[in-house]
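Morning. Coffee machine broken again, so started the prediction first thing and wrote up yesterday's gels while waiting. Chain of 237 residues, entered below exactly as on the submission form.
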Amino acid sequence: MEADGSVVAMHMSDGIVNAPVSLAFGVVAVVGLAFCVARARRDLDDRTAPLAGLVAAFVFAVQMLNFPVLPGVSGHLLGGALTAILVGPYVGALCIAIVLALQGLLFADGGLSALGMNITNMALIGTFVGFGVAVALRPLARRGRAGLLVTAFVAAWVNVVVASLGFVLEYALGGEGLALGTVFGLMTGFHALIGIGEGIITALTVGAVAAVRPDLVYLWRGERPDLEIRTSEQAGR
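Came back before lunch.
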């Protein structure tokens, strides 16, 4: 909640949650990112590494733009499901964490004391939940581009709503000023709407990549033989 009464999702500012809880989730973020670094090494290859840089730059740029949801309420792309579908959950989580760190350090978008919570919510919870939904819907996604678009939309919507619940948990542990029921209602209600915008952006972006280079879509790897044939044909040209 901003000082002017508007609600902006989802970066947390300094002082919303007390110092002990902020520190605790800072530790959670560090441990989670260390695990992602260890696991991301096996996912990074000649295809994933360049795409990861492009995806991180895209998320950084789009997160700087807010889209209106309701009067006084605006949202922006979280990007967890988007990055996970394209480059995998471990590399995706690192991309989102880097974006959040740069935004906090260079643009004061999200408080530095809240950086651990923002990373936990958006880079860890959002990315892995979004990827989990995408994996659950993989039978639909493997049917073709239309199935992939639906999968991307649903994964992104769930990513946003569940990430908002991370904030509710953190506020329950160390926040003051608003009743927990009010916080829960505001966060889940607003983010259910914001998730629609997230889903549309994610589906369009994933669909654009799939149309040009389907072999770059991490979720499709090893799932669609026709992609492997097409990739081999492209390599032989």
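Strands lie at 7-8, 67-70, 73-75. Going to sketch it on the whiteboard this afternoon.
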